[in-house]
Amino acid sequence: MKTQSISALAAAGLLIMGASASPIAFAEGSNPISANIGVVSNYIWRGQSQTNNGPAIQGGLDYAHESGFSAGTWVSNVDFDDDTNYELDVYGGFGGSINDDLSYEFNLIYYGYPDGRDLDFSEIGASTTYKWLTAGIAYTIYGQGDDADGVDNGQANYIEGDLYYHVSLDFELPYELGLSLRGGYYDFRYNDGGNDYGHWGASISREAGDFGTFSFNYDQIGRDTYDDDPKIWVGWLKEF
Which of 35, 136, 163, 180 is most deeply buried (CB count within 10 A of its CB)? Predict the structure, then answer.
C-alpha cells in the first residue's frame, strides 16, 4: 500500500508509508475491519509521480488484530505512458509498542500492475517510531524488472536487492493541524548507482471530522536524472 502516515498524510502516494501495514490501535469491542478512500491531485510515491503528474482516486480495505497482526489491500489508478492503468497492492505486517514512546513494525508488501508491463515487485520492511521520529528500511525481495539497466520513462524497474531508506518527523500543531517532514534514499542494485536518488518533502494536514482529512503537500527529488521539479499536490482521505 503506497500510503503515508494518516496523522500527517506524509509518505508517497496518498498518506503514506509508504505503504504499510502499520500497527493499529485496537480498542476492545471495536471493528477489526476498516476501509479508506482518497483523492490526490498527484500520486507521489518516494518522490516520483505515479500518474504523470495527474490526479488519482485510491482506496483500500484493512484488517487489524489485537495481537498486532494486520493485512490489507489497496488500489489506485496510475499512468506510466503505456498500457499500465492501475496498481493493486496486497500487504501484511506485525507491529506493537514497547512503551508509550517507542513502537515498531514489520511488513511484507506486493505491488502489482495487472494490466501493464512487467513492473510487479515485492518488499519486506521494518521501521521504528520514537515519539515524533520514524525511521525504516525496505528491501526488494522480488521484481519483474530483473533485466533492467536503466530508467524507463522516469519509472524505475525494481529488482531483487534494491534498498530504500526513509525517515520522517511528525508533529501536532495548533488549530488541529499536523506537520510531517520526510526524506528517503533509493539504493538500486543495477546500473552501478547511476539511478540512485534521494528525495524529501513536507505535508500540512487537518482532520475535518466526518469530512475526512485534507492535506497540502510538497515533494522533490534531488537528482536531475529524474523529474526533479518541485511537486505541489493536495489530498483528501476518508476512513470508515
Answer: 180
For residue 152, what is its C-alpha cell? 524507463
- Contact between 196 and 188 under an 8 Å Cβ cutoff? The reply is yes
Provide CB contacts within 8 A for 164, sequence distance 6+: 46, 123, 137, 138, 139, 184, 185, 186, 187
| Nearest partner of 135 among 87, 183, 101, judged by Cα | 183
**Do the Cβ atoms of 47 and 225 come closer than 8 Å?**
no
> pLDDT (tens digit, 9 = 90+) per residue, 97-110?
999 999 999 999 99
- Domains, in order of start, for the chain: 33-239 (2.40.160.160)
Q: What pTM was estimated for this model as a whole?
A: 0.86
Sign of CA dihedral 140, 137, 240, 78: negative
